[in-house]
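Supplementary notes (optional reading)

For those who missed the lab, this is the record we used. Protein: Palmitoyltransferase. Length: 377 residues.
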Amino acid sequence: MRSRRSLLLGPARLCFRLLLLLGYRRRCPPLLRNLALRWRYGKVCLRSLLYNSFGGSDTAIDSAFEPVYWLVDNVIRWFGVVFVALVIVLTSSIVAIAYLCVLPLILHTYSVPRICWHFVYSHWNLILIVFHYYQAITTPPGYPPQAKTDLATVSICKKCIYPKPARTHHCSICNRCVLKMDHHCPWMNNCVGHYNHRYFFSFCFFMTLGCVYCSFGSWDMFREAYAALEKMKQLDRNKLQVAANQTYHQTPPPAFSFRERMTHKSLVYLWFLCSSVALALGALTVWHAVLISRGETSIERHINRKERHRLTLKGKVFRNPYNYGCLNNWKVFLGVNTRRHWLTRVLLPSSHLPYGNGMTWDPPPYVTRAPDSVLAV
């Protein structure tokens, strides 16, 4: 197809170039000169219609991958409920195994103080996991008002065509702008924004603690259960050999009941699932902890990196306007104003609102001075 097009367009382009060359000469007829001028004028009009000062390689790549983005957005939008149900089912299975398999073993082997410690810590961790996950999936992340307001806006959203405050970004899955958007989490079927960012991070943190606790606490049980499963496999192989030879002169090994088999398999399943989630979710939690310490979101991290590189080439230093220092960033994020809040708002379930309204970003009272820097929009 390309070769046919080149064969057809090649002579036409050659004729137009000859007309352009003749148009520069005053000896050419006026008809050819006007035709050449009209051709040049048409090219300028066409380029002006296609010109975009914001165009570049990034824009071209985004346009090329637009069908892929559309497919991913629709898959995540429709399967969000499935992901939430999967989280609930997996968490419930671990809790059920802990009550039905682990708890009876603990009651027969551990001392009373150790049993009390495990009982208090495990239920405290479970309550925090359930509370923060429920709040994360049911709390709206926060949306900018679509009516006319006097609030200062940074730009206009190209998708919503509405004013967009600072730190606000458009979510293609929710199809609307989100205040202080971090990302869209499919495991929550919700955007992570200004009003539920703390719930999302707290859920990740306490879920990681719970998985680490289950992995280390059930390590000895896992080894015994894994060894028992290997014995079961060996027993099954011996039974097959006996059935084939119809002779068996040795004493058969003790058989395992159905309950013992299910207990051993459940303990192995618990350890592998908790260890995998602890590694994956732990890495995600550490990454978000680093971003919170810097006063950034996941989107702002990429924007600030490009802005830092641009200013470095000009010999300037980039400073994040929302970075108030590591400790102050955590206080703003967790909503901690007094020392008592570390207990009542961090270590205990709390539904307090975050600092600010998500549209204006004045520094908190305990920050003396906001740094002069470039806004991350």
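If you only remember one thing from this example: The two ends are 45 Å apart (CA to CA).
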